[in-house]
Structures are given as C-alpha cells and as structure tokens.
Amino acid sequence: MKEYYDLNDYVYHWIDFTLIFGTPFPLLLIGNVTVVVQLARSRSRRQRMNISGQARDTRPVSILMISLCVLFVFTITPVSVGMVNDVAVLVSYFNATFNFVIYVFSGSKFRAELRSLLFCMATQCTSLFVS
C-alpha cells in the first residue's frame, strides 16, 4: 500500500502536470510566438517595399495569438498545480469554450466558414468542402 501512496504522491502529479500543462503550453507559446514574429517580419517587409494594395493589418491576429496563450495559462494553471476543486475544473473545461468565442468575435473568415457550415447542415448539404 505504501508503494501506491508513493506513486500517487510523487509520480502521478508530475505526469499529470506534464500532460495537462507542461507539454501543451510550451508548444502553444512557441507556435504562437513564431506566428507573431513572422507576421511582424512580413509587415515590416511590406512597409519597406512600399506595397500598399492588399496590405492587411496583422495586429489583430497577433493580439488573438497572445490572448489565447494568456487564456490557456489562466484556465489550465489552477488544475495543473493541484488546485483540484469544482471551480478550477470547471474553468479548465471552459478553455475550449472561450477559444471558440474568441475566434467567433475576432475572425471574420471564421464566422463566414461557421455560417456556411451551419447553413449547410441546416439544409442537409452532403458535400461540405465544395468550391
């Protein structure tokens, strides 16, 4: 019985932390930082080359990426550090819901695709990705 307590006290918490927070957050952070840096480089290249035509502002995408990282930290950290109570677990479940809401409010392309998907489902459309 002591071996079980040792496993639960010392090993399980580290495995749980690694799977819930320790692996996903660095991947999310590295991926988002890479996207934001590439967007900034692209924006500065366009400004240096004086390309005006279809130049888009990349700040909203950068803000979206940063807000997703911050949201992940605030919603997953309480559970990953061992604060396992009902509120902390509920907040961690809301992470996916908050992500969806952020995408709906910030992305016009996402809204358009969501509308077309829902319209297609409402009309019993059989081919989803028809161009």
Descriptive notes:
The chain is mainly α and 131 residues long. 79% of the residues lie in helices and 0% in strands. It is built from five helices and no strands. The chain has helices spanning 2-22, 24-48, 59-80, 86-106, 108-122. The N and C termini lie far apart (62 Å). The relative contact order is 0.08. The mean pLDDT is 76.
Alpha-beta content class: mainly alpha
Number of helices: 5
- Summarize model confidence as the mean pLDDT: 76
Low-confidence stretches: none
Write the layout of secondary structure elements.
Blueprint: H1 2-22, H2 24-48, H3 59-80, H4 86-106, H5 108-122
Helix pairs in contact: 1-3, 2-3, 3-4
Descriptive tags:
flat; 131 residues; mainly alpha
Task: Put the structure in a nutshell.
The protein has five helices and no strands.
